[in-house]
Amino acid sequence: MAGAPDDVTALLAEINLGHRDALTRLIPLVYRELRRLAGSYLRDERIGHTLQPTALVHEAFLRLAGQDRANWQNRAQFMGVAAQLMRRILVDYARRRAAGKRGGAAVRLDEEHFQASSGPQSLEIVLAVDEVLGMLEQVDPQQARVVELRYFGGLSVEETAAALGISPRTVKGDWALAKAWLRTRLAGGEPP
Amino acid sequence: MTPERWGRIKEVFGAALGERTGERSAVLDAMCAGDAELRAELERLLAETSESSLPSPVEGALTQAGAQPARAGQIVNSYLILRRIGAGGMSVVYKALDIRLGRPVALKFLPSELDLDEDARTALVNEAKTAAALNHPNIESVHGMEETAGGQLFIVMAYYEGETLAEKMQRGPLPVADAAAIAVQIANGLAEAHAHKVVHRDIKPSNIVLTRQGVAKIVDFGIARIIHSVNSTRSMHLAGTAAYMSPEQAKGQGLDARTDLWSLGAVLYEMIAGRPPFEGADLPAKLFAIVNASPPDLSREVPAAMQKVVYRALAKDPGDRYQSAALMIADLRWTSAQTGQEQDSTATLEELKKHTRPARPQGSRRHLGWILAALLAAVVAVLWWILWPAGPKPAAYQSYLKALDYMQRYEKPENLDRAISLLTESVKADPKFALAFASLGQACWQKARLTADPRLLREAETHARHALELNGNLARVHIVMGLIQRSLGNLELAEEEFERALKMEPSDADSLAGLAGVYQAQRRLKEAEDLYRRAATLHPESWETHNNLGVFLLTQNRYREAAQQFSRVIELAPGNVVAYLNLGAALMDDGQLDEAEKVLERAREKRPTSYTAAAVYTNLGSIYGLKRRFREAEAATRQALKFNARDWITWRNLAVIERWLGDDAAAVTAYKSALPLLETVAAASPQDPALQSSLAEIYAYCGERVKSEERLRTALALAPENHTVLLSAAKAYAALGDRDRAVALANDAVRNGLTLAELDQEPEGRWLGRDSRFTLPSK
């Protein structure tokens, strides 16, 4: 397959040198790999498995770029691309789920067995975050990137700060406001 | 939202967030002066700040994609999930209750379709439709395919009580005749599927369910294929199935109907030999054996004709196998028809066994041989129908299977009528079909119980006797005869029949319940209870075993324990009105009248069918009566009579209620309606003291002194120390005007355990309580 480590490392280097078209060649590779990973995770039957987007993004990075040649800057760059792609994959997925919604939702009868309802809720959140991101992209593109990296990329405050070249304090503030904004919308307020 | 506005929100938010909660209001006052809307927005936002992170988007998707599509107690669409009953490599199956229709179903959740696009989804749904269109007694009924709110697809199928062939085989190899009978049923199902161009591809013992009536059902039809096409990469899941995989399957070649016949051959081999024909330490070794090895020889004791069927089915080259399920059925039937005769019609054993070895390039002679063999097999099949009518004829068999379905839903009397007419057809089509005669006997017996019609009981006996004459080696036939004899009051005969059946099938729930019932009638209560409990332990998921135990406990006045069993029945069969009816009865007897009323009202809401409805209203009437709400009691009891006017108990209840209401004329009319009904019931069980004393009582109220006294002597001789019988006798003498005897008998009843509560239910309690010679029961 085309996604050999060398290609990806070279493409990342090119992106760093400012070659925009390198990005367009990189995206399909990363997208495919992430999708494959996400698919295998989502299909997996392991129960109680904690999974963060980071795990997927890191795994994709290691597979595509190769551990030894990966430098920090490449990694941050890659994370940025990966977070965008994760957003696409997950939003697509959530939309398809939402489109398939019909009939009664699962009703809880037994406290002990209750768990599944976190599912639809999480998917609603995915779509709501996407919507907030759409708004932020119009009014504050940097904040939009923060949210994308934190939520869809699963990056920590420090990683996000490093990837965007801003202070962790700014990341924290941007992220706190975005979360509060999202929560007021999810709590039934008017749409943003 | 404009960038400026957002910038402002962000600025104020950042500033306020830096302050402690108490200080924030001042910041907002200062920064939002004159902009109430901004202030309101920020107050909302600040109220929502929290350190907690959002749930991971992947986590949410994972839960949805769901390793655990459902959990017990959850309602998915209109199904209440009861428990997980199995998990294949690619799907999870749950037992669930269809809440709308009140029937148990099996729900099979397909793997997450994360990567399915609309086309693939449509293809999948179409496949399920094809499977659902297969309508055959030996194929599990697929009701349809649905989708959860989360977009997960699942298949809704009929749920069968029984065990899989895999479970049955764990207890050891099967007698050749049984193996052949099961194989014929599987082949029948396959013939139907193949006629619709559906190939199962995954015939194996765990995909064959044997219902309690002994009907083999092929499960997972079409689904195996759907999953293979969706998820062709997950080949490791084939490991469990490998032993029954055809050589062409093992080689990944194209498949047709003949692959199923190979797998059936492998299953048949295992039923007879007790081990699969091809074994290996791991998957590659198994696959190698399937493609390259010959199966180990079957024991010499296996009739040659049967060995031939097995080896032909297991031929490596599909061209050497049976070309259709029908041909295999014909040979299987011929095999079972042949008792020890070594008539060779097709090819020699060695010749057939040869084909189980891998094919080597050969000339066309082999194919010619095959065509000849196929022709001969067809001729034999035709001859068999004419000359060896030992197996059931197809038409007879079809109506027999349909009738069994109706009999399972015997609570609707019209279903029993349908079953009786189908079985009558069946025995007409095949007058040597023992099982059909037995089932006809059973259906008549069930109807006799519902309608209390003794003529039906004698008809049932005739059919069962005929079945025994045709074939005395079937447990089912003995069970039916046992049930009938028990109802006729011939307890020793019944006991013998059940014991014979248990020797053939030691854990059969019906035999256990039957024998327990005999012990109960013989007052061997400890033994009876042990058997009821054994049945419930051996078949914990069968509501009937718990219901039987509950009814037994109820008759032993162990109301609480009985109520526990009935609660379990409701858990197992929530749509079953009988469970509510019985729980209501247990609560009623336990004196929990309010609870009982609630439960019975639930039963009434479930829109019971006529006979059950009659029982529900009768019991409601009793409760209202016990609560002294006699007008309501009268209405409910009369309602019960509208559903079923052939139950003497309901008439008797009505009479008692009318006496409480002071309408003695109406009471006598009701007693007169009860009388002929009770006479027939009591005539069928002349040894039952409670029936005899009730009859005496009613004769007395109708003014028939001689008949009443005759019955009283019988009843008191049978049960001189039963307080219910003694009280009945007291009431009878009172009605006949003999108060002295009445008081003496009532005192006897008290000495033998009559309670104040029981006495309080009787109109007679009023004057008895005032009679100085009578000692009231202590509280």
* Helix content percent band of chain A: over 70%
- Average pLDDT of chain A, to the nearest integer? 66
Strand order of the largest sheet of chain B: 1-2-3-4-6-5
Tell me the total number of β-strands of chain B: 9
Count of alpha and pi helical runs of chain A: 8
Globular, elongated, flat, extended or rod-shaped: what is the shape of chain A? globular
**Alpha-beta content class of chain A:** mainly alpha
Evaluate the radius of gyration of chain A: 18 Å
Describe the structure.
The complex is a heterodimer of chains A (192) and B (779). Chain A has one domain (5-100, 111-186). Helix content of chain A is 72%, strand content 0%. Chain A is built from 8 helices and no strands. In chain A, α5 (118-139) crosses α8 (168-186). Chain B has 37 helices and 9 strands. In chain B, the strands form 2 sheets. A 6-stranded antiparallel sheet of chain B has the order 1-2-3-4-6-5, covered by helices on one side. In chain B, β3 (92-98) and β4 (103-109) form a beta hairpin. Chain B starts with a helix and ends in a 9-residue tail after the last helix. Chains A and B meet through α2, α3, α4, α5 and α6 of A and α1, α3, α4 and β1 of B.
List keywords for this structure.
A: 192 residues; mainly alpha; disordered N terminus; B: 779 residues; alpha+beta; Transferase(Phosphotransferase), domain 1; 6-stranded antiparallel beta sheet; 3-stranded antiparallel beta sheet; 9 strands
Summarize the structure.
With 192 residues, chain A is mainly alpha-helical. Chain A contains eight helices and no strands.
Could you outline the blueprint of secondary structure elements for this entry?
The complex is a heterodimer of chains A (192) and B (779).
Chain A: H1 5-16, H2 20-43, H3 53-65, H4 72-99, H5 118-139, H6 141-152, H7 157-164, H8 168-186
Helix pairs in contact in A: 1-2, 1-4, 2-3, 2-4, 3-4, 4-5, 4-6, 4-7, 5-6, 5-8, 6-7, 6-8, 7-8
Chain B: H1 3-18, H2 21-31, H3 36-47, H4 57-65, E1 75-76, E2 79-87, E3 92-98, E4 103-109, H5 118-133, E5 142-147, E6 153-158, E7 162-164, H6 165-169, H7 176-195, E8 208-211, E9 216-218, H8 223-230, H9 247-250, H10 257-273, H11 283-292, H12 304-313, H13 325-337, H14 349-355, H15 365-387, H16 394-408, H17 413-429, H18 434-451, H19 454-470, H20 475-487, H21 491-504, H22 509-521, H23 525-538, H24 543-555, H25 559-572, H26 577-589, H27 593-605, H28 610-626, H29 630-643, H30 648-660, H31 664-684, H32 689-701, H33 705-718, H34 723-735, H35 739-751, H36 756-760, H37 765-770
Antiparallel strand pairs in B: 1-2, 2-3, 3-4, 4-6, 5-6, 7-8, 8-9
